[in-house]
Design goal:
The complex is a heterodimer of chains A (330) and B (408). Chain A has 330 residues and is α/β, with parallel strands linked by helices. Chain A has a single domain, classed as Thiamin diphosphate (ThDP)-binding fold, Pyr/PP domains (Rossmann fold, 3-Layer(aba) Sandwich), CATH 3.40.50.970. Helix content of chain A is 34%, strand content 16%. In chain A, the strands form 2 sheets. Chain A has an 8-stranded mixed β-sheet, with helices on both faces. Chain A has a two-stranded antiparallel ribbon with strand order 9-10. In chain A, helix 1 packs across helix 7. Chain A is globular and about 65 Å long. The termini of chain A are far apart. Chain B folds into 2 domains: 254 residues, Thiamin diphosphate (ThDP)-binding fold, Pyr/PP domains (Rossmann fold), CATH 3.40.50.970; 137 residues, Rossmann fold. Helix content of chain B is 40%, strand content 19%. Chain B is α/β, with parallel strands linked by helices and 408 residues long. The chains are: A alpha/beta (330), B alpha/beta (408). Strand 2 of chain A pairs parallel with strand 9 of chain B.
Chain lengths: 330, 408
């Protein structure tokens, strides 16, 4: 087991490190929350970090030759390879450090992927990476709910009914994407007892996200964080509302923020308040109707959507997290 | 007291081992850092031996059993980028499952060494040898070597890291080993000592291309039409430099270990007297071909054999020189290339292209043989020579591509 860098928790947003690891040079769209996710991720991890990014927006828009925004070492990996890339990088370092071919020191390894690369194509590779307790690595899935870099196509992480270039509402079929969004983080947490840390986050809650990155890297072994990133282009809204839409995704109960550390589940922020009954969930239409990708939804569609979200809070064993029905009380 | 494993490479010795085992021993001797495995016949025997060697403490490596060939090749690609010496391999459709990773490994100039246990691309199901799996990467920047014996497998594996990791090359290299005939067949192999190997094989230094916090570079950014052509050109130049690196390494290997052929690119058999007909092929079919040639020589027929060892880089000048004296060349392909010029095999069309600039060109006749692991028999080789002789006698090639041993 290689050494782990001890990254203390940040108390208060003003104490987030000032040092940037992701700076100017990228060409992401105005209002791109994924760019903010990248920026916060590397701020939290610090300069002794290797970042490997699989194909997607955060590759194509981020690393134009001669104008890379990455201050830390960065390497591209294939669309479905975030798991293998993290494993290979960590294994190479671990092997050489153990054998005295390289200075033995803690180096963070982070591989990121979009929802297309992580939730769809790279799922098996991420699963395999999470089995290797001997390697310290973090896989970060930034989820903008479509293959956004290739013109907005539906992915396994797109919401039900969303308009995309592969699921356009038509005269005969209004709802072309009939799949419900995959429940990725709990699937990975439940399936990999060797993985000590799984979390969900959103850049709208920057401090929470920063600290989750730090906990993942400090706890050691293979870890996974799933982040929802509002995307003005793919979701069809004014770029100035990215931050607000991230908050609405959480406040409506559609995106649940939590961490599972050593098997212990803790909800955070508004999700926690909703779970404990301190705060009511906002209606999902407050969130859906702000986005052009849902403009074709009818009243019944919105009701159906609301009903599915209600079920996830009212009927699920672990509300908003694990879709098993609660056992009947004796 | 030293353990059995510690004694393993202290003295030079002869062992009865298979081609796969020979490559596994080379991995231990080369102190490879990261090795990835995924099961598919017949290459996977090498990983069985690697895992045994690691389990018994013969060497220290990170041995990772991946969840697919794609991940298998991606893991070593990334391990190589941080400066680790790597090894992996596959066979047939498994090699194809990793194709994306295989392509970018060469594109990124990462010196991964792989073993291909040549296997038919099933469906329909077949375990036996065909060369189409490894040949599919021939345009991508992988060096491709076709091994004929277990001894050669061990020797060439040791040379592979040295060649691939030379900064003038920084290209991946695959050792193609015929499924069953080489991967599973045992022969007496001279296993060198660790001391000899250390003298020959230095550590892998990625230098200014190493991905590390002390060297914060960006690898593989978006270059598009602005730079891709220049980068392809650099890969081409790197591949053009490899013949020089190979010759240098081969000569040094011969000095340290005291064995090797005159040329690293070709093995010539009974070609000193400028025979009328020269057979040409790759891999283990050298064995029946040599037997057939000895028989035909006894009958007074002037026949020789050239075994092509490196398919990439293709040693154009050496091939021209070796074949230009013959009246006809018979190229044996353990592969196919449907719809290609003359519907011939891959090797045939490459050899024919290499001979084209010659003023006096020999006839070139193609034989597709031994597909799916079917045996190439001595009398098959004799039949090839008879057909080729007809071209010489009549002054023209009646049928350029001939399938041997097919039930009609």
């Amino acid at each position: 087991m290689t050494l782990v860098r001890d990254l203390p928790q940040v108390r208060g947003v003003k104490n987030i490190p000032i040092q940037e690891g992701f700076t100017s040079g990228h060409r992401t769209c105005q209002g791109c929350e994924s760019a903010l996710t990248m920026r916060l991720m590397i701020k939290a991890a610090g300069p002794r970090t290797i970042v490997v990014g699989s194909t997607g927006c955060m590759y194509v828009a981020n690393t134009t030759y001669y104008s890379t925004p990455w201050v830390v070492p960065w390497m591209h990996t294939q669309l479905g390879s975030s798991g293998a890339a993290a494993t290979g990088t960590a294994a190479g370092l671990a092997s050489m450090m153990r054998k005295g071919k390289m200075k033995d020191e803690p180096i963070n390894v982070i591989a990121f992927c979009g929802d297309g690369g992580g939730v769809d194509m790279g799922l098996a590779g991420i699963s395999a990476a999470l089995q290797h307790e001997e390697y310290n690595l973090l896989i970060l899935c930034y989820d903008n709910e479509s293959y956004a870099n290739t013109d907005i196509q539906v992915s396994g992480s797109s919401p039900w009914g969303a308009n995309s270039t592969f699921s356009p509402p038509g005269k005969v079929h209004r709802i072309m994407n009939r799949r419900w969004k995959k429940n990725t983080a709990p699937m990975l947490a439940a399936g990999h007892p060797s993985c000590r840390y799984v979390a969900t986050a959103c850049a709208s809650y920057g401090l929470d996200f920063t600290n989750k990155i730090r906990r993942a890297l400090t706890i050691g072994g293979p870890t996974f964080i799933h982040v929802i990133d509002p995307c003005p282009k793919g979701w069809d809204y004014d770029p100035k509302y990215s931050h607000e839409l991230g908050m609405l995704a959480v406040e409506t109960g559609l995106w649940v923020q939590y961490e599972i550390a050593d098997g212990e589940l803790t909800l955070s922020g508004p999700s926690r308040a909703i779970q404990s009954g301190v705060r009511a969930r906002k209606p999902v239409q407050d969130y859906l109707q702000r986005q052009g990708r849902f403009a074709h939804l009818t009243e019944e569609d919105l009701q159906f959507f609301q009903q599915r979200v209600d079920e996830s809070w009212d009927d699920w064993w672990l509300p908003g997290v694990v879709p098993f029905k609660r056992p009947e009380e004796e | 007291m030293t353990t059995v494993e510690e004694q393993l490479f202290m003295t030079e010795k002869e062992e009865l081992i298979s081609g796969s085992e020979a490559v596994a021993i080379a991995c231990a001797l080369a102190d490879v850092d990261v090795i990835t495995a995924y099961p598919i016949r017949p290459y996977d025997t090498v990983m069985q031996y690697v895992s045994q060697l690691k389990a018994n403490g013969a060497f220290d490596c990170d041995f990772i059993v991946a969840e697919s060939e794609h991940s298998q090749f991606e893991i070593v690609k990334h391990a190589s980028s941080v400066g680790a010496r790597t090894f992996c391999g596959s066979s047939g459709v498994g090699w194809f499952y990793a194709f994306e990773a295989i392509a970018v490994t060469a594109g990124l100039r990462l010196p991964v060494v792989a073993m291909v246990g040549n296997r038919a691309l099933d469906d329909p199901g077949a375990f036996g040898v065909e060369h189409n799996d490894a040949l599919a990467v021939r345009d991508l920047g992988w060096m491709l070597y076709w091994v004929a014996t277990a001894q050669e497998a061990l020797d060439m594996a040791l040379m592979a890291w040295r060649i691939a990791e030379d900064p003038r090359a920084f290209l991946p290299m695959a050792l193609s080993c015929d499924g069953s005939f080489l991967t599973h067949s045992q022969a007496i192999v001279n296993v060198p000592t660790q001391e000899q190997v250390n003298k020959f094989l230095p550590g892998y230094q990625r230098g200014q291309m190493q991905l590390h916090p002390d060297n914060p570079i960006t690898v593989a950014p978006q270059v598009n039409e602005d730079w891709l052509m220049e980068i392809r050109r650099q890969s081409n130049e790197a591949m053009s430099r490899t013949p020089g690196v190979i010759k240098e390494v081969y000569e040094e290997f011969k000095q340290v270990f005291g064995r090797g052929d005159p040329s690293p690119f070709l093995e010539e058999y009974m070609t000193d007297d400028d025979p009328d007909i020269i057979l040409m092929g790759m891999g283990t079919l050298a064995l029946p071909v040599r037997v057939a040639i000895r028989r035909m020589r006894e009958q007074g027929k002037k026949v020789g054999f050239v075994r092509l060892k490196f398919f990439r880089p293709f040693a154009t000048e050496e091939v021209q020189e070796a074949l230009s004296g013959a009246k006809a060349v018979a190229v044996i392909d353990r592969d196919y290339s449907f719809g290609s010029p003359s519907s011939g095999g891959v090797l045939f069309n490459e050899v024919r292209a290499a001979l084209y600039p010659l003023e006096k060109r020999p006839h070139v006749v193609n034989f597709i043989a031994g597909l799916g692991g079917r045996e190439v028999r001595v009398r098959d080789v004799e039949e090839m020579v008879e057909t080729t002789q007809k071209a010489i006698d009549t002054g023209k090639v009646e049928q350029e591509c001939n399938w041997i041993g097919v039930r009609e």
